[in-house]
Amino acid sequence: MKTLIKNAYIVSPDVEIEGASLLMEDGRILSVIGAGEATPDADEVIDAGGRLVMPGFFDIHCHGADGNDVCDNSLEAIRHIARRKLQEGVTTWLPTTLTQPQDKLEEIAGKCAQYMANPEFCRAPGLHVEGPFINKKNAGAQNPEFVRPPDFGELKRIHDIAPALIVSLAPDIEGANEVIRKGAEIGITSSAAHTSSTAAQIFEAKKAGLKHLTHFCNAMTPVHHREIGVVGAGLIDDSLKLELICDKIHLCPDMLKLVFKLVPIERLLMITDSMAASWIGQGEVDLGGLAVIVKDGKAVLKEGGALAGSALLYNEGLKNVVELTGLPLHQIVKATSWNQAQSLGLQGFGKLEPGFFADIVILNNDFSVWKTLVGGEVR
Ligand SMILES: [Zn+2]
């Protein structure tokens, strides 16, 4: 069956085409047709009415949505989150775990594997394991009670249940670089998180295989003019990729402008880091055993007031970046899925070109989501 999207304003890395059409078959993109060219026949036609048509978003860091958390350890919770993510325009998601006991993490990986075997909503090619190998001093909203020393065996046991595509860990903790090195050998991307590392420790970890910095600027050492910290390392390094929570809370508007100005777009990975607080407006939710209060789009620990993940919707983050940076969409779109797929070595994601998956988000002018397609199907 062939499906055509017509009257599309297509945005793909380095490409913007007005009045275009896009033909899909068997879950893949067959062709992109420019304005004025003859539109091919199709079994089904979606008239985008001039709306933005972009590669579906790839959220590599998201714990939950709408009162549900991956660590609720329930297939129903994971399905609910995946359905909500789809409504944010996310077509690929890495269910992200919290610092939890090993037996619980293995059970959760089992639930995620069940969803991965039959992903009815957005795709979920693997896990993002955040913690437990972090620095207690930088635990933020990770439960310090379950922080443990780096142990590759533990990570491998989770990975054997559901592929861990990313592990977030603290390179300043002894043994972390060994986990980074062994992880890289089996395709696990390491990301520095919840850490007191110096810049030098980050560059050491990079030699072991470190590739990302998790929720850049949050729960890591800031720039100081005699020790540039993890943040400084992220700014001056030429290949580390930076996860950004673009909610204007975890990074204030000026910091977002600064990062997009200083760092080549190819190194930026827009994430939500959303948890159960997203979609609910306000109230109280649980985060790995810690009580979280949600108010005015901000989620904070009831005790101590630390920021506790975000309530951000992916499409809202995109809107913020467009408004703050003024960068063209064909540049920003690299940071919503293409860079993520490249960094994780996944083929077929992040571009609207022949052969790529027909994973597509269609956005209204105000960046609200009109439709999301996974494998050419509206879901
Ligand atoms: Zn975190």
CA-CA gap between termini: 16 Å
The appropriate CATH architecture of the largest domain is: Alpha-Beta Barrel
> What coarse outline follows from CA principal-axis ratios?
globular
Q: Look at the helices and sheets and give the structural class.
A: alpha/beta
Unreliable spans: none
Under CATH, the topology of the largest domain is which?
A: TIM Barrel
Domain module tally: 2
Integer average pLDDT? 96
CATH class of the largest domain: Alpha Beta
Helix content: 25-40%
Radius of gyration using CA atoms only = 20 Å
* Count of distinct strands: 21
Q: How would a textbook summarize the main sheet?
A: 8 strands, mixed
What compounds are bound to the protein? Answer: zinc ion
CATH homologous superfamily grouping of the largest domain: Metal-dependent hydrolases
- How much strand content do the residues show? 25-35%
Number of separate helices: 10
Notes on the structure:
The protein has 379 residues and is an alpha/beta fold. The protein folds into two domains: 2-54 and 352-378, Urease, subunit C, domain 1 (Roll); 57-344, TIM Barrel (Alpha-Beta Barrel). Helices cover 26% and strands 28% of the residues. It has ten helices and 21 strands. Strands 1, 2, 3, 4, 5, 19, 20 and 21 form an eight-stranded mixed beta sheet that branches. The protein has an eight-stranded parallel beta sheet with strand order 6-9-10-11-12-13-14-15, with helices on both faces. The model has no long low-confidence stretch (mean pLDDT 96). The structure holds zinc ion (ZN).
